[in-house]
Design goal:
The structure holds two protein chains of two kinds.
Chain A lengths: L3 H6 L7 E12 L2 E13 L4 E5 L6 H8 L7 E10 L2 E2 L5 H7 L4 E4 L3 H4 L6 H12 L4 H14 L5 H5 L8 H13 L5 E5 L7 H18 L2 E6 L2 H7 L2 E6 L2 E7 H6 L4 H9 L51 E2 L9 E2 L9 H5 L13 E14 L4 H6 L4 E14 L3 E5 L6 H9 L6 E6 L2 E2 L10 H6 E4 L3 H4 L6 H11 L6 H14 L16 H12 L6 E5 L7 H18 L2 E6 L2 H7 L2 E6 L2 E7 H4 L6 H9 L8 E2 L30 H5 L4 E5 L2 E4 L4 H5 L5 E2 L15
Parallel strand pairs in A: 3-8, 3-9, 6-7, 7-8, 15-20, 15-21, 18-19, 19-20
Antiparallel strand pairs in A: 1-2, 1-4, 4-5, 9-10, 10-12, 11-12, 13-14, 13-16, 16-17, 21-22, 22-25, 23-26, 24-25
Helix pairs in contact in A: 5-6, 6-8, 8-9, 9-24, 12-21, 18-19, 20-21
Chain B lengths: L1 H27 L2 H9 L5 H10 L6 H13 L13 H36 L4 H15 L2 H15 L15 H31 L2 H8 L4 H30 L2 H6 L5 H10 L3 H29 L1 H4 L2
The chains are: A alpha/beta, B mainly alpha.
Chain lengths: ~725, ~300
């Protein structure tokens, strides 16, 4: 990363945005909720600054505060926001309106939701210059078309006539970016701009934003919880905790020498390439983020900090202090003990674990196919009575999973991984092939015809814990119901005992049994989801993106919990995920899927090292890694995922493959080549050639130190 | 879209045929009852049998149903028992009168309801919102017969500015239309206004309205161009349901003001078992219901591009 120079060199430039001592509050029936406290930030021209922190830390509130979009019950309580030297608090509503969208623009998390569903994209784009600059409609259309070309939209005219729902998620986000950049703003706020997108799409969007902002000298304020992404896109970052910045500085300095225990804790939570589930497990930050009106005295992080010193850390409010490193004079931290703490020594006390030995094969999937019929509803189709079209959601899926083994299924959205889970669970039946659990073929038995034992032996942990728990029943009752249904226990007292035992297993207090889901945090709800899945002592558990909706520190805790339970019960875990960092960390074997087909499968080490399938290679390259030491080759995939209704005839990946050989890839299905005993790659390129490919990720050798500490200045 | 229109129209015809069958079975299922209502309570059994034979009511239900349907399709609605005249001569006039009352009410009601609903919903929780909400709940809670009496008391007896009856004996009169329209509007607009308010309030909290605000668009522009169309999708169905209510639900109001409309006719026919008149009124009411729902569905599809361009 050499982005630090130009920001420093342009010191004579006046800052675009200067926030000092900002305090933002919401007013509710419970009184004033101080969401952001004493916030300072300076963004210079062309600079890219990141704001990281977990949900509820106030990072989005800062963005809304800058835009003065706080709703009816929120407002600026103190401090100032200066934009190009002018104090924004003096602006009238009308002045603010003229700044929004013209001088400061914003890009949002959910592109689909942030575009108006009933207006064409053309109208949503053209109104920006028409309102702000009063240009004619033709001129506005011309600019919109140019901007769409600039964001690499292949057919701008067609796109402009479309409605948002008619284009893919990646294209929607490009439209949102085009909309934000149409009036060449001086400052762009990006609130989790790629969180809702697939990793391969994310890589393209991130590159695009960097390219366009560099061209126009736009300053960027990135808001994200994704530290890996921050490392790729930012010059400087601010780490926020409970409404205040706890550490800020140049990206390299923060990532290499994090000083605040919270920043440190965050790095311990994310599965970096050299983390290992047995030798170097993730360490979750204990406790929870305090509510804004229940903050402790002194350091807000105090109650969760392992370096807490009573009488000192819980005294007065802690001020930001400069950490004078040679590289970064601007590195500041809000900790009284920053120069006393020896993180190297402290981290070493963590426990290591015995690897789980993989037992006999429990789950065997053999040439499983799942096709859906799509009925045409047009009159012409009804008349012609042609054969219905088929969506090949799963094609020739084969793999085995042993007792106690973790098998990850990875791929972008639409790759068929959820269909596969549905077939396993019996929500769909396989069109062909077998899914054997302990020798019984379950692929053709729908869930309603499965015996309680079969149901109990194959359970699922779902992605979004908020939607999967019934809001009107207590969590204890929901777990108890499962216990009775599976015939584990029927006598009320013993059922209750089982509920308590399960709560113990997922490390929740027993009195949680009487709570309703709304009284639980996201991580606690997911623990209940896990308790429910493990109620019947399942042989196999499918975890469908179990941590992707959770904050990093919560995700780390849930990941570790899941693996502890797995270790204890010797459960086979099918981990469905798009997050390759998590996959690398916790799985033993990996299955890479694309458009319903397996592209590559093998042990985690085999899949994450050459020879790669070209798709695996691209996926690996797209994942942001929060470690400045790790070097990565960049491969950005072009184009969109083909429609599963009309997949390419030959290799499904041929339309986007950077290593496409030629017409053979378009016409012939790729042969499955065996690199090792159970390492298969479906590709036309000969293995010898694939073996010559350089690794995508290069992890520097070092003596097993955690993020950032290996290197010495 | 054309596809959808054709299919919806096909469904509509099917529903009409089925409902017509039910209507027919209830009214003409038992030939003796028809004979009784035509010939009166003092007719002898032999007379009834003779009437049944004479008018072909001894044939099977199926034959009679298709015969009836084909007569209706050619425009012959039969003869009214009480008026001793073809139903056609009375029916269309009355339907026309109600169409005038319903049409005027509909226009006034929809405009008032949408404006108030949008005003309330665009600033949820504001004083403006609360005043409108309380007002619309209050007026909707007062039944028509009560508001008809109250309004007549105020405008006819106390202020003496409006006529108390609306029989239109001296030809069409706008003044006579005011009170019935007012009563119907007050009762009916609350539903649409509440629905519009809820829908508008929901739209105002969506991320795409935030996008519009943060694009720096003027507030008016945001409401008119971005919010309104999305906010009107949900109330549209309710609005179409109201047309149905305006035709068959105006019985009370028409009766209260002596308005010679469809509702009053239906009431009269039902009370005196005037079979063919009941059938004609029933068919008309069902037709309006099915037709407005079809238009409602098509309009919903048109308004919502997410359905239109799947």
């Amino acid at each position: 990363m050499s982005v630090t120079e130009h920001a420093g060199a342009s010191g004579d430039d006046a800052p675009v945005l200067e926030i000092s001592g900002l305090r933002l509050s919401y007013y509710t029936r419970a009184g004033e909720i101080p969401a952001v406290m004493d916030f300072d930030l300076t963004v210079r021209k062309g600079e890219s600054v990141g704001l990281v922190g977990e949900s509820g830390c106030g990072k989005s509130t800062v963005a809304n505060g800058i835009m003065r979009y706080m709703g009816r019950n929120g407002g600026i309580v103190g401090g100032s926001i200066r934009f190009k030297g002018r104090d924004m608090s003096e602006f009238s509503e009308e002045e603010i309106r003229r700044i929004r969208g013209r001088d400061i623009a914003m890009i949002y998390q959910e592109p689909m939701a942030s575009l108006n569903p009933s207006m064409t994209i053309a109208r949503q784009l053209t109104e920006v210059p028409m309102v702000h600059e009063g240009v004619s409609e033709e001129e506005a259309r011309r600019r919109a078309r140019e901007m769409l070309e600039a964001v690499h939209i292949p057919d701008p005219n067609r796109l402009m006539a479309s409605y948002p729902h008619q284009v893919s998620g990646g294209q929607q986000q490009r439209v949102v970016i085009a909309m934000a950049l149409l009036s060449r703003p001086a400052l762009l706020l990006l609130d989790e701009p790629t969180t809702a997108l697939d990793v391969t799409v994310e890589a393209g969007i991130v590159e695009l934003i960097a390219e366009l902002s560099k061209e126009a000298g736009t300053s960027l304020l990135y808001i994200s919880h994704n530290l890996g992404l921050m490392l790729e896109v930012c010059d400087r970052i601010c780490v926020m905790y409970s409404g205040e910045v706890v550490e800020e500085g140049h990206i390299d300095s923060i990532f290499s020498w994090p000083k605040h225990p919270y920043t440190h804790g965050l790095f311990g939570c994310i599965p970096l390439p050299h983390a290992d589930k047995n030798a170097r497990p993730l360490v979750a930050i204990p406790g929870q983020l305090p509510l804004p009106h229940q903050r402790p005295t002194g350091c807000y992080f105090g109650p969760r900090c392992s370096f807490f010193e009573p009488g000192r850390c819980d005294g007065d409010l802690v001020a930001m202090e400069s950490v004078h490193t040679d590289d970064d004079p601007a590195h500041r931290v809000r900790c009284l003990r920053w120069n006393e703490i020896d993180h190297d020594a402290a981290v070493r006390v963590e426990e290591t674990r015995e690897p789980v030995s993989v037992g006999e094969t429990v789950l065997e999937v053999d040439n499983m196919r799942k096709y859906y019929e799509v009925r045409e509803t047009s009159l012409a189709a009804l008349v012609s009575r042609g054969s219905p079209r088929q969506v090949k959601a799963n094609e020739q899926i084969s793999f085995r999973a042993g007792e106690g083994e973790t098998v990850a299924i990875v791929g972008e959205s639409g790759c068929g991984k959820s269909t596969f889970a549905k077939v396993l669970m019996g929500l769909e039946t396989a069109t062909e092939g077998e899914v054997r659990l302990d020798g019984t073929d379950l692929g053709s038995i729908p869930v309603k015809q499965r015996t309680p034992e079969q149901l109990a032996s194959l359970q699922m942990v779902f992605q979004n814990p908020n939607d999967t728990l019934n809001p009107s029943h207590s969590v204890g009752a929901q777990i108890a119901r499962v216990i009775r249904r599976f015939g584990i226990e029927s006598e009320p007292a013993r059922v209750q005992q089982q509920v308590f035992r399960l709560l113990d297993t997922v490390k929740l207090p027993r009195d949680f049994a009487s709570r309703k889901p709304r009284q639980l945090s996201g991580g606690q709800k997911q623990r209940i989801g896990i308790a429910r899945a493990f109620a019947g002592n399942p042989k196999t558990v499918i975890a469908d993106e179990p941590i992707s909706a959770l904050d990093v520190s919560v995700a780390a805790a849930v990941t570790e919990l899941l693996m502890d339970i797995q270790r204890e019960h010797r459960t086979t875990l099918l981990f469905i995920s798009h997050d390759l960092s998590a996959v690398r960390y916790l799985s033993d074997r990996v299955v890479v899927m694309y458009l319903g087909q397996i592209m590559e499968r093998g042990s985690t080490e085999e899949v994450f090292a050459p020879p790669y399938h070209p798709y695996t290679e691209a996926l690996l390259s797209a994942v942001p890694i929060a470690d400045p030491e790790v070097e990565k080759r960049r491969i950005v995939l072009e184009g969109n995922l083909p429609s599963p209704l009309d997949p390419p005839k030959g290799c499904p990946f041929s339309t986007r493959c950077p290593r496409r050989l030629g017409s053979i890839c378009d016409t012939d299905p790729p042969p499955v080549q065996m690199n090792a005993d159970r390492h298969a790659i479906a590709c036309h390129i000969p293995l010898e050639e694939l073996r010559l490919v350089e690794p995508v990720i290069t992890i520097p050798e070092r003596d097993a130190l955690p993020a950032g500490e290996g290197a010495t200045g | 879209m054309l596809n959808l229109v054709l299919r919806r129209l096909g469904t509509m015809v099917l529903i009409m045929l089925v409902v017509a069958l039910l209507l027919f079975l209830i009214n003409e299922g038992d030939p003796r009852l028809i004979a009784r209502s035509v010939l009166g309570p003092y007719a002898q059994d032999e007379q009834l049998d003779a009437w049944i034979m004479q008018h072909g009511y001894d044939r099977s239900l199926f034959v009679r149903y298709f015969e009836w349907i084909s007569r209706v399709l050619t425009g012959d609605l039969g003869d009214s028992i009480i008026y001793k005249r073809p139903v056609n001569e009375i029916f269309w006039d009355r339907l026309g009168n109600t169409a005038i009352l319903a049409g005027v009410t509909f226009l006034v009601m929809v405009v008032v309801a949408l404006v108030l609903g949008v005003l309330a919903g665009m600033k949820e929780g504001s004083t403006q919102d609360r005043v409108i909400s309380v007002f619309s709940i209050a007026t909707t809670s007062v039944p028509e017969y009560a508001s008809a009496v109250i309004l007549a008391g105020v405008f006819v007896y106390w202020l003496a500015v409006l006529p108390g009856t609306s029989s239109m004996t001296g030809g069409f009169s706008v003044v006579e239309l005011i009170l019935p329209v007012l009563v119907l509007t007050l009762y009916g607009f609350g539903y649409i206004a509440r629905m519009t308010r809820a829908s508008m309030a929901e739209v105002m909290t969506t991320p795409y309205i935030r996008t519009a605000v943060l694009k720096g668009l003027p507030y008016r522009h945001i409401i008119m161009k971005h919010a309104l169309r999305n906010a009107l999708i949900a109330p549209f169905t309710v609005i179409m349901l109201q047309i149905n209510w305006l035709l068959s639900g105006v019985v009370v109001t028409e009766f209260a003001f002596g308005y010679k409309g469809f509702g009053a006719l239906l009431l009269e026919a039902a009370l005196r078992r005037d079979i063919f008149l009941i059938e004609a009124c029933g068919l008309a009411a069902v037709f309006v219901a099915v037709f407005t729902q079809t238009v409602g569905d098509l309009g919903y599809t048109y308004l919502n591009p997410r359905i239109r361009f799947k």
